[in-house]
Description:
Pfam families: PhyH (PF05721)
Helix content: 10-25%
Organism: Streptomyces roseolus
CATH architecture: Sandwich
Protein name: Phytanoyl-CoA dioxygenase family protein
GO molecular function: dioxygenase activity
CATH class: Mainly Beta
Number of domains: 1
Shape: globular
Order of helices and strands: HEHEEHHEEEEEHEEEEE
Largest sheet: 7 strands, antiparallel
InterPro entries: Phytyl_CoA_dOase-like
CATH superfamily: q2cbj1_9rhob like domain
Bound molecules: 2-oxoglutaric acid
Amino acid sequence: MLTTPDLTESGLPTQEVLHRFHDQGFVHLRSVLSPEEVAGFRAAAEKLLAEEGPEIWGASADETQVHYVEAAWRKHPDLRRLALHPVVTRAAEHLAGGPLRLYGTDVLKKEPDVHLPTVVHDDEPGLPLAGLTRTLTAWIPLVDVPADRGCLIYVPGSHRRPLAHRQVHLAGFQDYRPMEEIWPDFPFSPRVAVPMRAGDVVFHDFRTVHMAGANTDGERRLAFASVYMDSDATYRPGVQDHPVAHLAPGAPVDGDRFPLIAAGPGATP
Ligand SMILES: O=C(O)CCC(=O)C(=O)O
């Protein structure tokens, strides 16, 4: 039985949550997963990290922001269950307002003291996809993430900034430009830190500017992120496109590797 105040009895985000997501570009849902579920998902994530030897998000090993394991949902059955969790996917589709597919999932680990803050970014330019209007990410902490454990920090309303202040696509990392260059108002924009308990979920729109602080509280930060894309997205060659590079440019990104997430109207949470 769900006890979250942010979902209705049938497991959908309340009107207030929906409004906040559209207005701010992110929304924090409390107590979506039970402690038992979180314990199982955390064990799976830890196993995967130990087995896989994580990849580095950062310019070099000395400048690591996050260690990650990509395609986690295809590497462990419990993480597949998390990526396709009916409560999470129904909430995602309701917030997005249209059909979605699973694009990718990462286990994300930020070690205390050694890992740097996560760079200011939005997700749009790093996705090798075209036709996106409602793509969003579910970021799910698998341990408590208080403010000083590298919690996510959002710029409310930044998903609504005009095209002139967005970088829509990165054909290569040489095209990368820092946020303050793309969006001169960024340094003056208010931001909101979102400390979270294990079992909460934060959703953010693919255009919402976000970052994460350094982890200074002595405990590892462990999280799982799923990107749910527009169901009719197509391949646009760009950075980090190895999951889709077998496709012809312009081809639909679909099939078993990118499943529709619809739980269906009768699905129980
Ligand atoms: O975990 C982090 O520090 C960053 C995650 C992130 O930016 C994302 O999932 O979009």
